[in-house]
Automatic annotation (TrEMBL):
The keyword Hydrolase is assigned to this record: no
Complexes and interactors: Heterotetramer of two alpha and two beta subunits.
GO CC aspect terms: cytosol; succinate-CoA ligase complex (ADP-forming)
Domain CoA-binding: from-to ranges: 4-104
SMART domains membership: CoA_binding
Homology family: Belongs to the succinate/malate CoA ligase alpha subunit family.
GO MF term (any one): succinate-CoA ligase (ADP-forming) activity
Protein name per the record: Succinate--CoA ligase [ADP-forming] subunit alpha
Pathway: Carbohydrate metabolism; tricarboxylic acid cycle; succinate from succinyl-CoA (ligase route): step 1/1
Lineage summary: Bacteria, Bacillati, Actinomycetota, Actinomycetes, Kitasatosporales
Binding residues annotated for substrate, in chain numbering: 165
Entry's EC annotation: 6.2.1.5
Keyword Protease: no
Length: 294
């Protein structure tokens, strides 16, 4: 089983013909992802050869869906064009849009997030500024290395791309049902809570690992949700215990103001909801391993 992405997912790549899009399309195909097309209005009608796999380029997302039955789009479009690309995906009613691009203006993200809601939330947005989503052995959409883990029983949701990779590697012998990088911008589409609910409903996810970071109150809200709605064991890690107050650390959303948003406050909220929280990623992996062995 998996959440949101499986071997039957048909993926298109908005921005496939750019340097980053080309690189990661090749890697996604190598991981077995069913990439059925790219989107670039200036190159519509062409095909791109990826080591013998010919991938057609369409002028619009709507055309790509009509011709291929695509149900996932991954977006590798420069930040100044990303809002238009996401709006196009929403208008085409693609079920899942994964926005990899970083550096998008917050008001652009707010605009396309609100637009998705106005259109009835028919498109789930993951990101922006995220590594994407992988269901190991089935499909990989984004920039997550496909060779660092295997299919298994753990569900992972993380604000941090790098910590996503580290956790997948640390627990590679057990493996993952799905790993989702939701991004660390102040406004994102899919949240910790969305992923927690999906993993709770997935019969083959036995344990959930949740990685947060300083800034905002997403982890505190997730803790409240876990307390009321999640029956599966959850293990957590919060990045940023040593971050100085008032200084943005890495992600645009990772800034502490007063006592709000500190790693300690998030750790305490999670522990109050029954979540075991590690002080380091490695300790977090050990906690997960102990629960599954127990």
């Amino acid at each position: 089983m998996a959440i949101w992405l499986n071997k039957d997912s048909k993926v298109i790549v908005q921005g496939m013909t750019g340097a980053t899009g080309m690189k990661h399309t090749k890697l996604m195909l190598g991981d077995g992802t069913n990439v059925v097309g790219g989107v670039n209005p200036r190159k519509a009608g062409q095909t791109v050869d990826f080591d013998g796999t010919e991938v057609p380029v369409f002028g619009t997302v709507k055309e790509a869906i009509e011709k291929t039955g695509a149900n996932v789009s991954v977006i590798f479009v420069p930040e100044k064009f990303t809002k238009d690309a996401v709006v196009e995906a929403i208008d085409a009613e693609i079920p899942l849009a994964v926005v990899i691009t970083e550096g998008i203006a917050v008001h652009d993200t707010a605009a396309f997030w609100a637009y998705a809601g106005k259109k009835g939330n028919k498109t789930r947005i993951i990101g922006p500024n995220c590594p994407g989503i992988i269901t190991p052995g089935q499909s990989n959409v984004g920039i997550i290395p496909g060779d660092i883990t295997k299919p298994g029983r753990i569900g992972l949701v993380s604000k941090s791309g790098t910590l996503t990779y580290q956790m997948m590697y640390e627990l590679r012998d057990i493996g993952f049902s799905t790993a989702v990088g939701i991004g660390g911008d102040p406004i994102i589409g899919t949240t910790h809570i969305d992923a927690l609910a999906a993993f709770e409903a997935d019969p083959e996810t036995d344990l959930i690992v949740m990685i947060g970071e300083i800034g905002g109150d997403a982890e505190e809200r997730a803790a409240a949700f876990i307390k009321e709605n999640v029956t599966k064991p959850v293990v957590g890690y919060v990045a940023g215990f040593t971050a100085p107050e008032g200084k943005t650390m890495g992600h645009a959303g990772a800034i502490v103001s007063g006592s709000s948003g500190t790693a300690q406050a998030k750790k305490e909220a999670l522990e109050a909801a029954g979540v075991k929280v590690g002080k380091t990623p490695t300790e977090t992996a050990k906690l997960a391993r102990a629960i599954l062995a127990g």
